[in-house]
TrEMBL record:
Gene for this chain: mscL
Organism domain of life: Bacteria
Record localization: Cell membrane; Membrane
This protein's GO CC annotations: plasma membrane
Taxonomic placement: Bacteria, Bacillati, Actinomycetota, Actinomycetes, Micrococcales
Described function: Channel that opens in response to stretch forces in the membrane lipid bilayer. May participate in the regulation of osmotic pressure changes within the cell.
Annotated protein name in UniProt: Large-conductance mechanosensitive channel
Assembly description: Homopentamer.
Membrane topology, record value: Multi-pass membrane protein
The species this protein was found in: Oerskovia enterophila
Length: 148
């Protein structure tokens, strides 16, 4: 049971799961905003063309008491297309543009090692040379570059 909980903890704390959760929440909020714009502005304009209060009243008919609403389907498709277009133009296109700029950009040159790293590398090299000659620790000074 402890392994299951530890595995779940690792899964949740990985960046991908948290990024996905944030994306779902932001996507839901973004969808609400776009749907409100569609319901409040665009649908009334389209429905005014057809002379109905909204798209759900457009192209309705009945056959043997069964009601069919083509307008309801058109309304759902229109909302979907508006949300998809908004997500594409507001999020996907800018992210693709940033990714392509990052790919074509020059690779950053690696920074020169810090002075303390250089000193430690020099000490490592001196110790390796001392061990290669078979001298043990404390067997005397090592010939080579001086340490500052």
């Amino acid at each position: 049971m402890k392994n299951v909980l530890n595995g779940f903890k690792e899964f949740v704390l990985r960046g991908n799961a948290i990024d996905l959760a944030v994306g779902v929440v932001i996507g839901g909020a973004f969808t609400l905003v776009v749907t409100s714009i569609v319901d409040g502005l665009i649908n009334p304009l389209v429905a005014a063309i057809f002379g109905k209060p909204d798209l759900t009243g457009v192209l309705n008919f009945s056959i043997n008491g069964a009601d069919f609403s083509i307008g309801l389907i058109l309304d759902a498709l229109f909302k979907f297309l508006c949300v998809a277009a908004a997500l594409y133009f507001v999020i996907v296109m800018p992210m693709n543009h940033l990714a392509s700029m990052r790919k074509t950009g020059e690779q950053a040159e690696p920074e020169a090692p810090a002075e303390d790293v250089l000193v430690l590398q020099e000490i490592r090299d001196l110790l390796a040379a001392q061990n290669a000659r078979g001298a043990g620790p404390g067997s005397g000074p090592v010939d080579g570059p001086s340490i500052r």
